[in-house]
Amino acid sequence: MAQPGPTQEPGDQDRAGDQGRAGALIRGAGRITALTGAGISTGSGIPDFRGPDGLWTRDPSAERISTLEWYLADEDVRRAAWRYRAESPVWNAAPNPAHQALARLEHQGRLRAVITQNTDGLHQAAGTRTVIELHGNVRTWRCEDCGATGPMTQALARVRAGDPDPRCSRCGGVIRATTILFGENLDPDVLDAAYAAAEDCDLLLVVGTSLTVMPAAGLVSVAGSAGARIVIVNGGPTPYDRRADAVVRGPIPQVLPALIGE
Ligand code: ZN
Fold it and tell me: Global pTM?
């Protein structure tokens, strides 16, 4: 799923007046599509895999548990994946004020959809109804062989009860989370919905993604070409900062609610 995005443009930095401009653009927009990434959930205690404190940064071999080929071929990789999942902070995480601010926008009738790279379900937990999950979600398991599905809590209960590699209860096949692993394509229906939401909005509000992975990066171009204004709220620079109408840096759980207001 990971493809290299555009390279960083030199000279990207905070621009004077962008905070005010971003707030005005958001307040003036009637049909907002949000595009969110790991940076919106780090404030809920979920580490960014690729960030400075991320799992893959600390332990590069951990990437194997997210790679389909390894996961299917190697029971040790699956055992590691289940241990990691059982201990994941996702299960105790709560939405933070940034997730809640987007849910409020939807409640006001001004948010068309949230497109997210996250699999943690925190947008839904905050009350947002239209969530397009580019990389799937961790709440469900699916059997690789027969396609059976079930709640992840059920599979994790088996792991915690001592089954290190729980198998499909119907056919005995390998089960996995309904997230997109490396080596897999994104769901074409999900992708279509994401492009439609990017094309049909008056403001694309980018939150907490470095915009270096497709298709998230491409969605900014799609929205911009269709005439939408672009506001980027992120902890660091993105390759699209120069194309954006406003770029705001800072801690997302504080910055985003302040921009969106009540
Ligand atoms: Zn099965």
Answer: 0.89
